[in-house]
């Protein structure tokens, strides 16, 4: 076989052929993996919702709506209902105040705003330190747990800042970020209830008086 002459034209043609083959291969792989990746992401989301607001009988994903926080974050809010009655909301929230950037969590709130549970979704915090947030803030030890606490009635900031929550040992910045994500979720939902308002103490008192 005769050797192809190394001319500019031949080199350009060869480069175009290689680029076309690479582009086709990448497009094929993207199409091949797109659905499995989307399915895995949806399954992860559904697992997080059921963990932070257990006991619902509806499909929170079908009733999901988005709301923008004061910080400009786009949050997803999933109303969880049992036999048509709201039992809580799962909120996909975030903050950019982590030691290494963004921290994303799913937090569950009762209709009155009380924290049910949480699930850490994404973070880039220091392994062994910031990663402890997965369990730290739900461990019933000293002042670690935020479960059954209310973002309005309880000062959910780290004790170093005058708050009620013990920070993760040697990971104060990560702890502040986690608690900030919880605050963002609560405040955004309160401002964007979509006819499912988080009850305030005043509203609860008025209801009691009306009875």
Q: If helices are DSSP runs of H or I spanning 4 or more residues, what is the number of helices?
A: 4
Structural class: alpha+beta
Helix content: 25-40%
Shape: globular
What is the CA-based Rg, rounded? 24 Å
Give the overall pLDDT as a whole number.
Answer: 85
Number of beta-strand segments: 5
Low-confidence stretches: 196-211
Q: What is the H/E string?
A: HEEEEEHHH
Number of domains: 1
Strand content: 15-25%
The neighbouring-strand order within the major sheet is 1-2-3-4-5
* Major sheet: 5 strands, antiparallel
Salient structural properties:
211 residues; 5 strands; 37% helix
Task: Itemize the secondary structure elements and their pairings.
Layout: H1 8-52, E1 65-68, E2 74-82, E3 85-98, E4 101-109, E5 115-122, H2 133-136, H3 172-191, H4 201-210
Antiparallel strand pairs: 1-2, 2-3, 3-4, 4-5
How is this structure best described in words?
This protein is an alpha+beta fold and 211 residues long. Helices cover 37% and strands 21% of the residues. It has a five-stranded antiparallel beta sheet. A hairpin with a 5-residue loop joins strand 1 and strand 2.
